[in-house]
Specification:
There is one protein chain. The protein is of the alpha/beta class. The chain has 16 helices and 17 strands. It has helices at about 5-10, 15-25, 50-55, 60, 70-85, 100-115, 130-140, 155-165, 190-205, 230-235, 250-255, 275-290, 295-305, 310-335, 365-375, 400-410; strands spanning about 30, 40, 45, 100, 120-125, 140-145, 150, 155, 170-175, 210-215, 245-250, 265-270, 345, 350-355, 375, 380, 385-390. The strands form five sheets. It has a seven-stranded mixed beta sheet, with helices on both faces. The chain has a four-stranded antiparallel beta sheet with strand order 13-14-17-16. Strands 1-15 form a two-stranded parallel ribbon. Helix 7 links the parallel strand 5 and strand 6. Helix 6 packs across helix 12 (about 275-290) and helix 15 (about 365-375) packs across helix 16 (about 400-410). It is globular and about 60 Å long.
C-alpha cells in the first residue's frame, strides 16, 4: 500500500517555466526571457508609489488577519474598477470580489466549486500548464482542446466544433486574454463571432451548464486598437441564459507590477441574485478551508494605492515600456524575415509571443542550444513550441534574440 492518495500519485512538479528559468540563471551572462514578470535593466519593474506606501504602513494596519473574503474597502474599490472598465455589464449582476492568494488560487477555487469527476474543461491547444494540474490531475475533468489558430487566424470554428460534440452536461471553459503563452487577444469581430457560438450553444442545450472562466491576469496590456477588449464585457449578455455563469479572475500581479504580493480577486457575474449569493458564501467556505484569508499587507497597500490617482501615470509609464518592446519585436521580426524560417503565432497583447519551430527541431533541445550557444533563455512549452517573454527583454536585446533564434534555426542539424 502506498502512502499517497490518488491525487498524490498523479500530481507532479512539471519541468515548467520556473525550473527552466532557474536553469537560465545558472548560465553566466544569459538573458532570461522565460518567466512571466516584467524587468527593466535586468531588475524587476515596479510602481514607485508602492514602495512609498509600504514604507509608511503601520504594523497595526497589516499584521491582523484579513477577513476570509478580504478587507471590505479594497473589495469595494476593486469592484468599482471592474465596473469602470466594463461598460456593458449590469452592475447589479456583479458580485463583490473575493480576495485570493493569487489568481492561481482563484482558479483552483472555481474548479473545486463547480467541477466534478468526468466534467468537461475546454481549452486551446496551448495553455498555462496549471489548468490541467487543477482540473484534470486533481479533479479528473476531461480536457477538450481546440486548435487556437488555423491559417494564422483565431479559430472560432475549432471552439464551435468542440462544443457541438460534447457529451458532458457540465462544462468549464477558460478564456485567457491576453493569452499565456501566445500573447493573443481576439478582435472585436472575433469576440462577436464567438459570442454567437456560445449563445447558440446555451440556447440549444438548456440542460447543460456552462461556467465561463475569464483569466484576466494580463488585463490592460492591449497593444492594438481592435484588440483592446475585455472578455467579461464582451460576453456579459450570456448570463441572461439560466445555464451560464461567469467567473472573472484578475489581480495586482501583472496589472500593478506586484508579483510577489500574491493577491488576486475572484468576481462572479450571475443574473440570479439567490444563486450569486450562494456562490459567494460557498466560495468563502472553500477559502476558509484552505488559506483562510489573503495577505493583509498586500490588501492594505492596494487599498491606499487605489485611492491615490498618482499610480495611474506610473502604471501607464510601465505599460508603455512593454508596448514599445512589442512594437520593436514586430519591427525586428519583419526586418530579419524570421517568418521565412519558422511559424510565429499571432500576438498583439500581454507579455509573450510563441514560435512553432520547424518539424525537424525539438523545442526542448532548441531551448538548451539557444541558452548555451547564444545566451538567451526561452521557455519550451512542448516538443514544438517555444515562448518568449518580451516583458523581460530591454529593447536593446530584442534584435539580438530574434537574430539568435534565426541563426539557431538555420544552424540546426
Amino acid at each position: 500500500m502506498s502512502f499517497f492518495s490518488k491525487t498524490g500519485k498523479d500530481i507532479i512538479l512539471p519541468k515548467d517555466v520556473l525550473i527552466q528559468s532557474r536553469e537560465t540563471e545558472n548560465v553566466k551572462g544569459a538573458i532570461n526571457s522565460t518567466i512571466g514578470m516584467a524587468t527593466l535593466n535586468k531588475k524587476v519593474m515596479y510602481l514607485p508609489i508602492l514602495r512609498e506606501i509600504i514604507k509608511n504602513l503601520s504594523y497595526e494596519e497589516y499584521l491582523p488577519y484579513s477577513p476570509t473574503s478580504g478587507h471590505p474597502t479594497v473589495r469595494k474599490l476593486w469592484k468599482e474598477k471592474i465596473i469602470r472598465e466594463n461598460n456593458k455589464i449590469i452592475p447589479e449582476f456583479l458580485s463583490e470580489p473575493i480576495t485570493t492568494a493569487g489568481i492561481t488560487q482563484g482558479i483552483d477555487l472555481v474548479a473545486n466549486l463547480f467541477s466534478d469527476k468526468d466534467d468537461a474543461l475546454v481549452l486551446p491547444d496551448l495553455y498555462w500548464q496549471n489548468y490541467s494540474q487543477i482540473f484534470s490531475v486533481k479533479l479528473k475533468n476531461k480536457i477538450y482542446k481546440y486548435q487556437q489558430f488555423e491559417n494564422g487566424l483565431y479559430s472560432i470554428a475549432g471552439i464551435k466544433n468542440i462544443l457541438e460534440n460534447l457529451q458532458e452536461n457540465k462544462i468549464s471553459m477558460i478564456l485567457n486574454f491576453p493569452n499565456n503563452p501566445t500573447g493573443y487577444t481576439p478582435s472585436k469581430k472575433e469576440f462577436s463571432e464567438l459570442k454567437e457560438v456560445l449563445k447558440n450553444f446555451l440556447s440549444a442545450n438548456p440542460n447543460k451548464k456552462l461556467i465561463l472562466i475569464c483569466d484576466d491576469a494580463y488585463f490592460g496590456l492591449f497593444f492594438e486598437e481592435d484588440n483592446k477588449n475585455s472578455t467579461l464585457n464582451e460576453f456579459a449578455e450570456l448570463v441572461k441564459y439560466d445555464n451560464c455563469i461567469i467567473a472573472k479572475l484578475d489581480g495586482i500581479t501583472k496589472e500593478f507590477y506586484a508579483w510577489g504580493f500574491r493577491l488576486g480577486f475572484l468576481t462572479y457575474y450571475v443574473s440570479d441574485d439567490k444563486l450569486r449569493n450562494e456562490i459567494l458564501e460557498k466560495s468563502q467556505g472553500f477559502l476558509r478551508s484552505t488559506t483562510s484569508s489573503a495577505s493583509s499587507i498586500a490588501q492594505k497597500t492596494l487599498e491606499i494605492l487605489l485611492k491615490d490617482d498618482k499610480y495611474i501615470n506610473e502604471k501607464l509609464k510601465n505599460d508603455k515600456i512593454i508596448e514599445n518592446r512589442y512594437k520593436k519585436l514586430k519591427e525586428v521580426i519583419e526586418l530579419e524575415n524570421l517568418e521565412e524560417y519558422t511559424e510565429i503565432l499571432p500576438f498583439n497583447s500581454g507579455y509573450f509571443f510563441t514560435i512553432k519551430l520547424p518539424e525537424n527541431i525539438n523545442a526542448h533541445e532548441f531551448r538548451i542550444k539557444l541558452l548555451n550557444d547564444y545566451k538567451f533563455g526561452v521557455y519550451s512549452i512542448d516538443n514544438s513550441h517555444i515562448r518568449i517573454a518580451f516583458s523581460c527583454l530591454d529593447e536593446e536585446y530584442i534584435p539580438m534574440i530574434i537574430k539568435s533564434i534565426k541563426e539557431c534555426i538555420i544552424s540546426w542539424k
